[in-house]
Amino acid sequence: MSLVLWLTGALLGYLLLRPLLVTGDEVDPYNLTKAATVLRERYIPGMNAQLRFANELYSRLEKAGQVVGGGRHVDFELEAQPNFAVAGAEEGDDLPEPKHAADSKAQFWPASIYQSIALEGALIDALAENPGSSIDEMDRQIRAAMKGFRVIRNITSYGNGSGLLATCISAADAGGKTTITCNASLNQPGVTNIRPRMAVAVLLLATGDDDDGIWYANVETVDKANHTITLDRTVTSAAGIDGTHGVFLARVDSASAYNKMPYGLGAVVSESNPEVSAGVAAGNDPDGFYGHIDRDTYDWFQGRELNNGGSQQQFTPDLFEHGIQLCEEEGGIPDLALLHPTTWRTVNNALFPLLQWQGSVKKSDAGYRFTTWNGIDLVRDFDCQLDTILILSTKSLTLIRNGGGIHIRNKDGLTWRSADRKDRYVCDLVLREQLACSKPNANCRISDIATRVLPTQS
Questions:
Q1: Domain check: are 279 and 205 in the same one?
Q2: How far is the first Cα of the chain from the last one, in angstroms, to the nearest whole number?
Q3: pLDDT digits over 173-197, tens only?
């Protein structure tokens, strides 16, 4: 049966792509238009279907209908802050002094994530001679793009909009390549966010400048045991790379994704405003305030943080309940906790003997394993920060998405464009979205949890 289905799919694919099969030195524009139809009708719907299940939090928001569209920015009405102009008085007394309500509206600007796909000109030409193998190659290229999109989006869903993947400790020349040691100490990701073949930039954390770093390189290898990565290019001065540098997502040479990614949960649960460097605010907010609200002025829009001042603390059920209580104090209804599997093991061992722990492991609609404690699902995700638990009131979160999801960015009406002076055709996909929160103080981050033996790094 599987052979019959495969042959049927191959035949349908051939018939769909048959108008592309032309001979000659140039590709007929009509055929490129048909190629655009193939991408739009065969692959884009599948990409967006996978998008809905590629991330546990976003999958739950989709299922609950907490995904909205919007324009250049989206306004959110916030829960009114209490007006305490209330007091007893006798006849003839002055009445309570009237007060104005605090800001009641937040604004979020969707950020854009792009994915570029290239098909060689020879692939298009080969469709005339060997359509089966050419269709398979096109399918492979597009599926690889889908996987990359999904990985990057999930990693950044835990970030703060900066595009930071890891902080550096040192670098060393490796014969035309560079080996970078990443910080894997408490609350640091080490190399867990980095994958082979990623395009990265090594930049100053504070400003986004290269300063002895590099604007663009490809990751060749990732050594999880030693917390190192190897890049395919040399940096200006390996000796100059230190803890003031970070590894960021890159776009092209001399242009990184620094502070241009959507907000993630790191921005939601933080007590601070996002970083603003070189006039660029993380998360695409023009003023550098999460939700366009200054957390230094309005502390009620801060996330809740429960830490031990940067020193390891043992996880206990009471610590977890304390985090839940911080959410509930502000009217939150915590229902989801996200943990790295290493942290999850520590939590599981501490909670398992207790009655409130429903320890049987279940699988969510998005395919993530989880257990439940007092009605809160504890979900394992390898992209979640080590040594940290994120306790979320998902009703306070909304995903803003423009354009209906991943869609083709057309330029002059063309989907597949001839690359300048290159025998290849390029298509750009874009996803415009933002993670908004109406009550950050209904969400909590517990950090500094002792989950592992920390590496000795200098």
A1: no
A2: 59
A3: 888 899 999 999 988 889 999 999 9
